[in-house]
Known about the structure:
A: mainly alpha; Arc Repressor Mutant, subunit A; 3-stranded mixed sheet; about 60% helix; B: alpha+beta; Nucleotidyltransferase, domain 5; 2 domains; 15 helices; about 30% helix; DNA damage (chain B); transcription regulation (chain B); Actin_CS (chain B); transcription (chain B); DNA repair (chain B)
Amino acid sequence: MASHDVRDVLNLPSEGAGPRPTKKQKTSAARPNLKGLAREVQSLGGDNPIAIVPEISTFKKRRFGSRKPAARWEMSAFCNSARGDQSLQLRHWKKETEDQSRATSQPQSDGQTPGENGMEVAKKTDAVEDSSFAKFNVEVDVPQYSEDQYNSNLLSDDWAKHETDYLFGLARDFDLRWPLIWDRYDYTPQSPGNVKEEKDVDGTDPNTAMIPAPKPRTLEDLKKRYYEVAAKMMAVQKPVQYMTQAEFSLHETMANFNPVSEMQRKKFAQDALSRSTDEAREEEQLLIEVRRIVARQQKLNQERQDLYRRLDFPLTEQDITSFKSSAGLSTLLQNLATADRSKKRKPILDINVANTPGSAQPSAQPNSTPVSEGRRESIAASIGGHRDSIGGGERPERPTKKGAQQQQERKKLTEQEEQIYGVSHHDRLPSGPTFRYERINKILTTKSNAQHQRITNTLAELDIPGRLNMPTRNVVEGMEKLLNSISVLLEIRKLNDKLDGEIRLEQAKKAERKKTGTTIGASGSEGSSGPASANTNEATNRTNGENTGLTSANKESNDDDRPTSKPTTNGAVNGEKYELTNGHDAKSSEQANAENREDKSMRPASSGGYKRSASVLSGVSEKSIKRLKK
Amino acid sequence: MMAAQQPLPNSQAPLDVYGGDEVSALVLDAGYCHTRAGFAGEDVPKSVLPSFYGSIKTSNSDSTTTTYRDIFGDECLYPRGDFEVKNYMSRSESVVEDWDAATKMWEHMLIKRLQPDREMPPIIKNGPSEPAADGEDVAMEDVENHEKPLAENPLLMTEAPWNTGKAREKAIEIAMENWGCPAFWMSRTPVCAAFAAGKASALVIDVGGANTSVTAIHDGMILKRSIQKSPVGGLWLSQQIRTMWDNNEPKVNVVPYFMIENKTPVDAGAPAQARLRKFAFDITPSYRAYEEERLLTEFKESVVEVWRGPGRYLNPGNEELVKSQPGRVFEMPDGWNQMWREQRYRVSEGMWDENAALPNPDGSGKAQTIPEMIKACLSAVDVDLRPNLLGNVVVTGGTSLLNGFNDRLNNELMAMHPGMKIKLHAAGLTTERRFGSWIGGSILASLGTFHQMWISRKEYEENGVGIVEKRCK
């Protein structure tokens, strides 16, 4: 219970400002009184003293002081006009109204006109107040009919007048709640002779022997009869042509009530209720399936419509000669592309743009993922190169335009001084303070999940924690560099793997071809294979050297990490490669392949060196493939 | 509450939120095990007494005639000589059987317990040799020339849905003639239970002491064709426990608390070491049965559990699963104790699975199970109402407080009606579950819109007792 509630219950003023400070004073005053307690026990209570004796006296005084005079309540009788009989007067507690209390307590100090006030009081006293709930009593309008009306309009073979009366009585009693009417429908038929004196029937009446058995009525039978009578009475009271729209529609609904369809509907409902679990589940699945189909249909329709719209080109009255030249066409294409891009569609020109030199793929694969990857690779490579060339304390994204400003500052501080004082220059600072390691995080988070995983794996292999312990500027920059190198490396390795596969494929093809060749002419095969293998081997070595030069940036960073692993792994992989290219048939190449894979998995620690070799191999494979194609 | 309400002037009182308008009505809810009475508008009955009452045989000075003096209230039910424990309700029907005792009991509760002391004429005792200062509750006799005791309080009574017209007429007669109530109303217990749950349409599953009933309520009215009644209730469960105890190895000796003078703790399964009390008089079997029932109630409350499902308890594997789980220890009043594991599920399974019911010695083991009752109830209701009823299932009655009852009920309903939205409404408070129908009556009688429903004294005088049939439908 919150203190607010306690206050509420005790009727204290709700503002906490009043009693608080005084209470504090009291506590300090009360302190010395608690003599029987040990000091330690007292101190347990902190600022608030331990309540042993509640200080009731002050509490009570305040409570009564702040209270308003109690409201006056009176036990007053009232009646309810919704009742059938007005005799019942119940009594309830009611707050005395203003004028009443004023009239009783201080009648002399009444400033208003005394006559009015007196009148009101008089009205209060002599007229018993009506319950405020009487207005909630509503009754359903059930049609009435007279004897003549019944005989002229409502006669039915199935329904006697007596039973119709009974039905309408029930409808009135239960306010047209049909389930209840049906539930309580317990009609005892009247012998046709004495419809009038229905109350006087006793068991000895000889006529009762002829009483027909009561017909079992379904809910639909009851409704049908009721609606039939109600519709007819409606038409009798007001001819159909004079009815208002609402009345007419009501009449139509009642006149056209179809018990058969109602029954069928209920039967369906019953079947639906008595389904087994499997049926229910099956139906649910079917429903989901239907929804899916409908959704697909809609999507298809929409796409078709899109297509139509696109095909349905507007007839142009403009001169189209400007588009007949290649320059005009290219501008048109550009316009269309921008329009397309604004529609957030897959760019048409993507394939053209993505044709970067880094992704010189021999196989033009239809899906676009390798293309975009190639793009990213090239971008990453360019960033890496950029950074390496700048070096030192700048951010990698720093454009070269800032050089002038930098030079100005250099006049003030030497580089050494800058380092000492920790001065750094930024072209653009993010708002507010940031942590350095967030730069690292940003690099990682922008990668896809799989890539992120691979990078962290590589870091683990290098025994470098993913989260820097001491992110000084130098460390962060080093880390940044490392991460970028790793990502470049990973890209290259991926490419390499792909090319490896293709090489293997080509080799397999070649071996196949060779095999067929050997079956035809066995003598020529050995001689031809010798030079070819020598060729490839040579090529490998050569390209190896070239590539080391190209990826010097990579090497630099990697050499820092693990310089020793380079020669051995490189050699080993090269050896494998050699073996592979020399493979005589598909089977042996497959074996080597397996070995290769095993090797990879068995040597996780040498990944730094291996990566480099992988990049090397990618170059090799490109060339060897070209050669093979020749 | 009062502090929050007081500042509101009459004109701003939120009538639409709280439609109450209390006219100090009384609510009386009689059941086989307990009778509840209190003021309308309160959330719990002021007076809850067992429907069992004591009857003391007093021999007159001339020892030819013996008269019985009835005493009411659980505080009077202690061991004494020539003392029979009776019940004014019928066990099989949960309706009033002994109207004289019922009148006395109700007067004891409504007038003696709930009305202020009045100037009373000297109470006429049953026998002339009656000791005047007995200190016990003595049933008040009707005093014809005295002012009617309930002249200011309308009375709302609840009744079982299968109550007969005669019994209803008798009830209004007592209220109007004997007590002089200004207004009277009779309401069915399931309707009240539905109101207590805040629902006008509901499927009420009332698992009480003597009976279990399943009833469909539509718009605050009972659907008569849907009424299902079965003895599967608290007392039936007690009988199952007795059968289980009889078949136990060793046989459980039921010794109620009042017979134990002292006891020493024993290990589980070891024979009891207790000294029984000696009484100078004979303990009547009816009193002993009453006390044994109290012991059984304790056992039901602390040990018995309902197999929660899915499936039935007797399905293969379930019993083994229960055996591997920790059981519950119950110590008898004489100190004998045992761990109950699978048996505690078994005794309640008969409520759900006819084949699981233990055969009672009198052959009354089998009874209509709760799922069967629900099925029968729903099939007697219009199809259009069934989904709504299943979405508003109200569980009430003291025996529904058995551990796991609601889970099992939910599972059974789901199995019976797959793909339907089934929502159980079972009050969390035990008092709300035990006094569900009283609380509903309390709500009903304190509503402002209910004032137009009361059968007034004048209407009664004009139409006679038959008006209750005409009005309370």
